[in-house]
Amino acid sequence: MTTTVRAFPAIRPGFKLVPAVIGTPATGQQIVYIECPNWCTEDHVNEWQHSVDDVSHWGDYYGAGIPSLTAEGPVLELSARLFADPTSQDVRLREAHVLVEGLAGADAHLTPTMAEQTADDLIKLAAKLRTAARSARLARNGDSDPDMDGALRRVREGQSA
Ligand SMILES: [Zn+2]
After folding, report:
1. Were both Cys, which of 40, 87, 141, 145 would link to 53 (CB 3.0–4.6 Å)?
2. Contact 18, 44 (CB under 8 A)
3. What is the pLDDT of residues 90-115, one digit of tens each?
4. Looking only at Cα atoms, what is the longest distance across the chain?
5. Strands (DSSP E) along the chain, which ranges?
6. The pTM is what?
7. Residue 58 Cα, ligand 1 centroid: separation in angstroms?
8. Could you give the CA distance from residue 49 to residue 57 in angstroms, rounded to a whole number?
9. How far is CA 85 from the centre of its chain?
10. What whole-number distance in Å separates Cα of residue 143 and Cα of residue 149?
11. Ligand 1 mean position to 33 CA, how many Å?
């Protein structure tokens, strides 16, 4: 008895071989195996594409919505996730990078360095947001000076110092 051994296709480090559905339900679909980065969480079977060239890779989605007391639902939204479009005309989009999306559909593609700088800016913005919230809360309570002495504030609020 002879056993035929076939070499398994070489997969680059950091990638896995996954099934992907290619084609449309109307014209016919087939399952092919594609190289997919380990960080990709996209289900390439459920999210079928017209052709292999249309396959992009997506990491987990992280989003934040900003509500308004004058509107229903969030009026601003930001999301970020890993992304790569291996057949993009723009070679910069072929490698793994961070995609930041907003409600308006303006996509921002960030290199790792750009993403780190943006994260630092958003951390500063979050700290300012907390400071503004504290000032607004104090102003609503009739205290416009956020640096007022705590004992004086408690007296004004009718509590003992
Ligand atoms: Zn993928």
Report:
1. 87
2. yes
3. 999 999 999 999 877 789 999 999 99
4. 95
5. 15-24, 28-37, 57-58, 62-67, 74-84, 97-102, 108-110
6. 0.77
7. 6
8. 12
9. 16
10. 11
11. 11
